[in-house]
């Protein structure tokens, strides 16, 4: 049974990267139907969005897997007294790379959806160069109106890929999967945020040392100062976690 925790109403499946990739790969190989199982990768910023939007929170909680992408959620598991510490941060960008490697080994069919025009195609080209035998059967940018979305749905359903990676940013990517979940003929759909920008070479990810120190947010802020409003959600999140931790400990005593 897949472990599950709750961070102030948000479902999280506390898994390691290896366990996550294994679960997804096994489900693809054993799933007879194209049931479009959603895998979401929220961080603290996305949590704060969901806290203000119940519909978005319900979408995140209706997933097959919801994984902690970001140091904030992992730290929250340490501070809240009734939650077992999350074993790892499963970042969307890292999950994408690991699943691409697994897909190349296991002959899974891939579709990239998201980013500005040309970004997904370049990400697909680079991914196939890095992984021999990787099959990416299609890609499309993430700027869709209803007509575009309906046409895209028919295109994807004609291909029936095993893995659909959706990189539109939150909450658009989660809302897209939720809206079309019943009609999308894919086995698993995974949200990956801005990972196509990184995979395509358009954006550099933070150095590994900053990733390990959970300072990737600082690197992104220094690169894009206009993100300051979004960065402010992080201290607000930590304040909420500290308040909730104190409340639960006082209640327990």
TrEMBL record:
Entry coiled-coil feature ranges: none
Q: Which superkingdom?
A: Bacteria
For this UniProt record, the keywords arranged alphabetically read as follows: Glycosyltransferase, Transferase
> Which InterPro entries does the UniProt entry name for this protein?
WecG_TagA_CpsF
The record's listing under Pfam families reads:
Glyco_tran_WecG
Query: A Gene Ontology molecular-function term?
Result: hexosyltransferase activity
User: Sorted alphabetically, which PANTHER family does this protein's record hold?
Assistant: PTHR34136, UDP-N-ACETYL-D-MANNOSAMINURONIC ACID TRANSFERASE (PTHR34136:SF1)
Its protein name is N-acetylmannosaminyltransferase
State the species of origin: Halarsenatibacter silvermanii
């Amino acid at each position: 049974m897949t472990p599950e925790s709750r961070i102030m109403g948000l479902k999280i499946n506390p898994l390691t990267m290896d366990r996550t990739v294994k679960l997804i790969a096994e489900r693809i190989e054993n799933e007879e139907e194209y049931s479009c199982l959603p895998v979401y990768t929220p961080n603290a910023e996305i949590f704060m969005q969901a806290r203000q939007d119940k519909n978005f929170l319900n979408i995140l909680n209706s997933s097959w897997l919801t994984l902690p992408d970001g140091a904030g959620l992992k730290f929250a598991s340490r501070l809240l007294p009734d939650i077992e510490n999350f074993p790892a941060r499963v970042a969307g960008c890292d999950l994408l790379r690991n699943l691409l490697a697994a897909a190349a080994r296991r002959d899974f069919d891939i579709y990239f959806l998201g980013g500005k025009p040309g970004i997904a195609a370049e990400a697909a080209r680079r991914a196939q160069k890095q992984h021999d035998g990787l099959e990416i059967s299609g890609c499309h940018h993430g700027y869709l109106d209803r007509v575009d979305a309906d046409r895209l749905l028919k295109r994807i359903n004609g291909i029936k890929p095993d893995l659909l990676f959706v990189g539109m940013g939150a909450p658009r990517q989660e809302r897209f999967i939720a809206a079309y979940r019943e009609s999308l003929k894919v086995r698993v759909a995974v949200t990956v945020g801005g990972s196509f920008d990184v995979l395509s070479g358009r954006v550099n990810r933070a150095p590994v040392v900053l990733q390990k120190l959970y300072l990737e947010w600082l690197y992104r802020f220094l690169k894009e100062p206009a993100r300051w409003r979004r960065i402010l959600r992080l201290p607000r999140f930590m304040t909420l976690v500290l308040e909730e931790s104190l409340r639960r400990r006082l209640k327990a005593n």
